[in-house]
Write a structure and sequence with these properties.
- This protein has about 210 residues and is mostly helical.
- The protein has one domain: Alpha-Beta Complex (Cytochrome C3).
- It is about 25% helix and about 5% strand.
- It has a three-stranded antiparallel beta sheet with strand order 1-2-3.
- Strand 1 (about 120-125) and strand 2 (about 135) form a beta hairpin.
- The longest helix is centred in the first third of the chain and has 15 residues, at about 50-60.
């Protein structure tokens, strides 16, 4: 008996048909149409430091788009913080721009030495040629979390060892363990999609399989 199509997959096709999903890595909202992507590095031999610097440009572009809106919260302290497309606080931008600088714990003092965030950007190719690729920045995640929150129980720290899919993320696995719960939603709006799917096809330093 043929297995029925996943309801999540059906929703993806419906979103694409309605123009809700950012296809081709370029059908973004108007406020994102003017994104300036860094030029592709032509050299076939790239050092890890140079590659990370290249992908860091994408990460900086990801965190440069936000808005500050009033009346979106009953908590006055949140009013002036940068917001995402849903009007929720964009905590990543708040940290990157120095709007907030939270302490590592309630009991920490200035003399405490905190573990420095890991500055490592991970490229993840989207399985479909219609979707821009993903850039996962360790820096903002390890700013809040220790490594053992994700490794090795959720993600095996080895290239190609994690068969991530959006279906499973929407069901609360992989990135969905936090996103949609304590971090920004992986559903709507479209501007949330491009907070992860930011590297357009052909603009990476990798051998992309979609070609």
């Amino acid at each position: 008996m043929k297995k029925s199509a996943s309801p999540y997959r059906a929703m993806v096709f419906l979103m694409a048909a309605l123009g809700i999903l950012p296809l081709g890595g370029c059908a973004f909202d108007e406020d994102l149409d003017s994104l300036m992507y860094p030029p592709t590095i032509k050299s076939s031999i790239i050092g890890s430091a140079e590659a990370n610097d290249y992908y860091d440009k994408f990460y900086k572009e990801m965190t440069s788009h936000k808005r500050v809106s009033k009346g979106t919260s009953n908590i006055a302290a949140l009013e002036a913080l940068p917001k995402d497309g849903l009007g929720n606080v964009n905590w990543t931008v708040a940290v990157v721009e120095g709007v907030i600088s939270p302490r590592s714990s309630l009991t920490s003092v200035e003399d405490d030495e905190d573990d420095m965030p890991l500055d490592l950007n991970i490229f993840i190719e989207a399985k479909t040629p219609l979707m821009a690729n993903v850039l996962f920045p360790h820096s903002i995640h390890t700013y809040w979390l220790s490594c053992n929150n994700c490794h090795p129980k959720i993600f095996i720290p080895e290239a190609g060892a994690n068969p991530i899919s959006m279906d499973e993320i929407w069901q609360g696995q992989w990135c969905g363990r936090c996103h949609g719960k304590v971090a920004f939603s992986v559903f709507m709006p479209r501007t949330n999609c491009v907070r992860c799917h930011v590297v357009r096809k052909g603009d990476s330093l990798e051998k992309e399989r979609w070609r």
